[in-house]
Amino acid sequence: MSAHSSLHLAASPIEAASDDAFPHVAIGRLRRMGRLSAPLPTALGGEGLCEPERVGDLRRLLTEIGRDSLPVGRLYEGHVNALALVLRYADAETREVLARDALDGHLFGVWNTEPKDNGLTLDPAGRLRGAKSFASGAGFVTRPLVTARMPDGRSLMLILRLKAGERADLSEWRVHGMRATATGTVDFSGLHVGEGAVIGAPDDYFRQPFFFAGAWRFLAVQLGGMEAVVETHRAHMRATGRSSDPHQQARFGRSLIALESCRLLVAQAADIVAAEALPPERVIAGVNLARAAVDQAGLDVLTLAQRSVGLAGFLDDHPLEAQMRDLATYLRQPAPDFALTGMAAHVLDCETPLHALWPEVRSQGCEA
Ligand SMILES: Cc1cc2nc3c(=O)[nH]c(=O)nc-3n(C[C@H](O)[C@H](O)[C@H](O)COP(=O)(O)OP(=O)(O)OC[C@H]3O[C@@H](n4cnc5c(N)ncnc54)[C@H](O)[C@@H]3O)c2cc1C
């Protein structure tokens, strides 16, 4: 997990030939390296990556995977998110059963988004009806954590057991980038919820600050995607002998500022979430600060790379082409306007001096 290493998760030659191929090779590699079980506590056979004091390691791993491949980063982030929810909310027995599934190599995911007119519901007899949309790893994730609405309107987290390929519809995932994530629709109508499926109490999924603050993990992955774009931008300048041009230097310098400022803000966001020491609204504002910064900076590094590399970067044999499509697509996350204005409103309304809003809360070993 050093800053210079690579997990070698870029698409295999066969998978790269069609960039909508699910990254079996990379996920298999993560499985063999023990990364699918690493989020579990050591007592359950993992490496404790979800423990607060390991937040720096988890953040660096997410960025490292995102740097190699944003689709793989998205899938791994969903896997970590599901295990983190299980560890936080499930009872001891369910935690143990699901930890064994992770150790056995099952891929987890969190499927919350749903079609407006066909959302997932759970009836009193334990039967599901409806679907989830934009579900990453559809057909490949065999332990999805889904949210299902109960008759009283509250929402319950369930871990469902699926076989590979079961119920997945990828026909509408014809998309600009992130094609390899297999983000599809999964209809669960008729499925009966088995024993041990329920995670936590109703509406636990939406408990704050964890619901909004968990965004720090996708920011860490996006940061890796930004880094890949800036690295390719640099490589192109060097390969074409254009590094000494002052216009190119100025654009590259602005790219680096965008990237490295985000690295600091994402590290700060991860640390304040892990510390659980500040009021929930302040934690959420700190994460939203990083969200708004990454959203803008991600678009900036794309524009700067496009201007510097020029048309060559749009040819499909140039690495920038797929990196740009993946980053532009993955930057689209829920309610970005609210992230910016909610954070601004919180700071405008509070009396705390700016320098004391997010005091240093770094846990041991979490230096940026
Ligand atoms: C590659 C990829 C994989 C994904 N995988 C999963 C997954 O596995 N599981 C899952 O649950 N989801 C997944 N998602 C979906 C994701 O969680 C979000 O639902 C999705 O990215 C939201 O994007 P959006 O642009 O439609 O957001 P929106 O929130 O609709 O934002 C679009 C624009 O509308 C504005 N806006 C938002 N709300 C309002 C409002 N009420 N009034 C006016 N304007 C508004 C926003 O600020 C923004 O400007 C995935 C998404 C991507 C890109």
TrEMBL record:
InterPro entries: Acyl-CoA_dehydrogenase, Acyl-CoA_Oxase/DH_mid-dom_sf, AcylCo_DH-like_C, AcylCo_DH/oxidase_C, AcylCoA_DH/ox_N_sf, AcylCoA_DH/oxidase_NM_dom_sf. Gene3D superfamilies: Acyl-CoA dehydrogenase/oxidase, N-terminal domain, Butyryl-CoA Dehydrogenase, subunit A, domain 2, Butyryl-CoA Dehydrogenase, subunit A, domain 3. Residues 219-328 form the Acyl-CoA dehydrogenase/oxidase C-terminal domain. It comes from the Bacteria. Its cofactor is FAD. Keywords: FAD, Flavoprotein, Oxidoreductase. Belongs to the acyl-CoA dehydrogenase family. This is Acyl-CoA dehydrogenase/oxidase C-terminal domain-containing protein. It comes from Methylorubrum suomiense.
